[in-house]
Amino acid sequence: MKHIDHKHTIKKDLKNHISVISGRTTESHFKQGEQTKKNDESDVFDINSKIVYEDFLLNFKEIIFDYFKIASGILTSTKDVHVDCTFIGETVQMVFLLKGNYTIEILGKSSSFTAHECNIFFGIETECKALISKGEHHIFLIDIQKEFFIKFFPKHEKFIDFRQQIENYENGYIRKQNLPITSEMLTLINLIIDCKWKGHFRKIYVHSKVMELLFLQLNILSLDLKPNEPVTPCNIVKMEIALNYLSKNYRNPGTLKELSKKIGTNEFLLKRDFKILFGTTVFGYVSEVRMKKAKELLLKSKYSISQISDEVGYKNPQHFSTAFKRKFGICPSSIR
Predict the structure, then answer these.
(1) Is the entire prediction scored with pTM above 0.70?
(2) Distance from the CA of 99 to the CA of which of 25, 184, 307, 321 falls in 20 to 30 A?
(3) What is the DSSP annotation of 151-193?
(4) What's the gap between Cα 161 and its chain centre?
(5) For the chain, what is the largest distance between any 2 Cα atoms, rounded to a whole number of angstroms?
(6) Is residue 214 classed as helix, strand or coil in its secondary structure?
(7) Measured between alpha carbons, how far is 49 from 172 in angstroms, rounded to an integer?
(8) Buried-exposed string 203-215: b where 16+ CB fall within 10 A, e elsewhere
């Protein structure tokens, strides 16, 4: 795997520098500060770094695998932090900003991240500047070996520009407009961060979650969302409220008009943004929840098919049986 070095200068009048290395398979992002490093029987390295200045604190946890490196960091500062970066080598980086905001300038082009946004970046041999505002910031990164990424990168017409960008060794993001971090992505990120598996089992588990996370990012990119029509942070919150409401009220979810009024948006944005964030329609999600609950009741309860049909919100047992067979390929009575 080729290397990326990010040399960070926290303040112009500060003599200390933070050296960062992205993409290297056996080393941390950082060369200074307090650091502990250990590896397990599966040759996976765990590195914890802590860097403290007068008005700046960074805690960073990294897990280094064969083809990618995961990094989760929390930065807290009482002042705006100015950062000078130098990239050496090449890597593909999945960027998720869970909290906070920052702006980065690469070759004269500025890109800004705010909380709950993500993107995919390809970097090689360049210098850049970043401004991280005061406050608390939580960032989650996955540095992927370029060859490994290309192996799974879809040959889709919407990805042609990024593929050519990588082939031509050009720095930049897969899309100018950042993507929203969906609830599914956040769930996967938390599963990776909080993984309790050890050794080879952790290696398999985390590998599968990274691939699933990459799939979710690329899936959103493949949807017909115009760059000038992103899902706003405000609407991300509203869609999460809608999802939570539907999860609890799947028996009687109401109409789209009623739901959009309840969460404070309109029907068009409800339908569009819900599909973008969760990969399904409002009523498609309701059907998923109903089928999951019905299957659970069939396996764990003694309710009749008619009772279960009513329990999950179907007025007609025949309609329920048809939907169940379409979902699982078998009739409800066959599952018992």
Answers:
(1) no
(2) 25
(3) HHS---GGGHHHHHHHHTT--EES-SSPEE--HHHHHHHHHHH
(4) 22
(5) 74
(6) helix
(7) 28
(8) bebbeebbeebbe
89 is written with which tokens? 């080598």
Are 29 and 143 within 8 A, CB to CB? no
- Nearest to 222, CA basis, from 287, 171, 162: 162
- The amino acid sitting at 88 is I
**Residue 74 DSSP SS3:** strand
Is the CB of residue 308 less than 8 Å from the CB of residue 295? Answer: no
pLDDT tens, per residue, the chain with 336 residues: 333 343 333 333 333 344 454 544 456 666 667 888 898 999 999 999 898 877 888 899 999 999 999 999 998 988 887 777 666 668 899 999 999 988 888 777 788 898 888 999 998 877 777 788 889 999 999 989 899 999 999 888 888 999 999 999 888 899 888 888 887 888 899 999 999 999 999 999 999 999 999 998 888 777 655 544 677 878 888 998 999 999 999 999 999 999 999 999 999 999 999 988 887 899 999 999 999 999 999 999 999 999 999 999 999 999 999 999 998 889 999 887
Contacts of 93 (CB under 8 A, 6+ apart): 22, 23, 120, 121, 122, 123, 141, 142, 143, 144
